[in-house]
Amino acid sequence: MNSTVKKSSTGFQVSAGLVILCCFIVAVLIFKFIFGNPANFMNNDPNNHPLPDNLLGTIYKGGIIVPIIQTLLLTVLVLSVERFFAIGKAQGKGKLVTFVANIKSALNAGNIQEAKNLCDKQQGSVANVVTAALAKYEQMTENTDMAKEQKEIAIQKELEEATALELPTLEQNLPVIGTMTTLGTLMGLLGTVIGMIKSFAALSDSGTTDSIALSAGISEALVNTAFGIATGALAVISYNYFTTKIDDITHAIDEVGFSIVQTFASTQK
Fold this sequence. Notes:
Elements: E1 6-8, E2 11-13, H1 16-35, H2 55-60, H3 65-91, H4 96-108, H5 112-122, H6 124-142, H7 148-171, H8 174-204, H9 211-267
Antiparallel strand pairs: 1-2
């Protein structure tokens, strides 16, 4: 993954690799200095039981898997915020449904300049695609060397090329969020299994019960289960939300593109 920040038509886009690295550092610091603060434990010793009703100390007992799952959780949060602003910018300044309706009205009235003005006001990925298509529309209108069918194909090709340029920027980092839906749950399951192994080991050790080791194993199992489920659930919600937004943008582009081609076909001889 590219570890730089680059500028695109949807704004600044942050590398997922850089986000994961920063989230890992933050997660380790939180685990060590906040969850592992001696004040959270009996006798100020992290090796002892957490204080009664002390959630931070209980989470610390989740073990080394906790900062790993925290990294995944923080990554989902950061990338979700980044996608929220990027896709919001791609939609433009006004409501997408209103923009599409206004563009279609302008096209039906044969007012190409009004459609271009609407694109300038709206901005964003949809407006960029429509602007490119309208420019090709005007170019084909003035062209006297090509057949009508060739002109329609040229406009359609321009729409496809402009769309292909815009859509990949909208989908950036979404595969990472999608991966977290499974990875978060699996890491939680791993932590659960490790915790249960430690619990059974404490029960079978020399035929006696080590209460500290037993509780630590149970805490590790439950804490990692909770963190893993939370990470997976958040990732699923985020991924589905943003893919739906991208589908709306794609539908808007297709709808306006069809209107542009149909308008050209009905007005040109």
